[in-house]
Amino acid sequence: MTSPLADDRLIVAMDVPNAIAGLKLAEQLGDAVSFYKIGLGMLTGGGLALANELKQELGKKIFLDMKLFDIGATVENAVRGIAQFDLDFLTVHGDPYVVSAAKEGAAAKDLKILAVTILTSLDREDLDGALIKSGAIKDLVQERAGNALAAGADGVIASPQEAALIRALPEAEGKLIVTPGVRPVGADLGDQKRVTTPAQALASGVDHIVVGRPIWQAEAPRLAAEAIINEMNSPQAQTPNQG
To answer: Three-state SS for 170?
Structure first.
């Protein structure tokens, strides 16, 4: 049973080595957390099995972060297979043809397709090295988000720093914005370069925040999760921060 404290807006990233460590983390967090993200890093460590156990046995919601990118037919077939597990969110790259193919694969299922815009671990120098066209990151994110949503994505993955721009798009009405790159005040930034606090993210129009290391690396993971949930329900999360 989910605790009254649990808040679906918080998605805990299970960036741990394998399913055994994932189950241990879920046990530590208990009913304080209701939504988990499982990514590529755990795919060979029993990630799909863990997703199924958390979903079917413990009643948790699951975000499968695969960032699929391939030819349309391959993406469609991959998503069709994943959709049979009755999970909640799945990421694909935000290219319109990839999004369209993923939506075809998820047809008749409740699986929501979320499009990746530009990874929150990247800055302009990284994009130059990848030969991505010139321009401010926030403008490129907004453009990619609009194209992905127009292609049928149920939502997008984006930095909280670009959330307000995306929320202002006509295509974003009724769609989800899910953001990594969220760190509580004083937390180590790790490999993230475009970050905000949980309260700032929600105030900017984000629907779900994804938090990993500040929770699973904490001495008391449940207390760390509860502190973030409390911040998510603070006045600062309801209106843009002025500081």
So the answer is: helix
Do 117 and 162 meet the contact criterion of CB atoms below 8 Å apart? yes
- 115 within 8 A of 149, measured Cβ to Cβ: yes
Only one residue has tokens 């606090």, namely 197
* C-alpha 69: how far from chain center: 17
User: Closest Cα to residue 122, out of 114, 112, 113, 131?
Assistant: 131
**Per-residue pLDDT tens for 146-172?**
999 999 999 999 887 788 899 999 999
Name the DSSP letter for residue 116: E
Average pLDDT on 45-73 reads 96
The active-site residue, picked from 55, 67, 109, 193, is: 67
Query: Phi then psi for 46, rounded to 5 degrees?
Result: 90, 25
- pLDDT tens readout for residues 64-113: 999 999 999 999 999 999 999 999 999 999 999 999 999 999 998 999 99
Q: Is 67 a catalytic residue?
A: yes
Radius of gyration of the chain (CA): 17
Give the C-alpha separation, 17 to 115, whole Å: 25
Give the Cα separation of 201 and 195 in Å (integer): 9
Q: Return the biggest CA–CA distance within the chain.
A: 49
pLDDT at 240: 47
Of 59, 110, 61, nearest to 82 by C-alpha is: 110
Alpha helices, H only, the chain: 19-29, 47-52, 72-83, 96-105, 124-129, 137-150, 160-167, 198-203, 213-216, 221-232
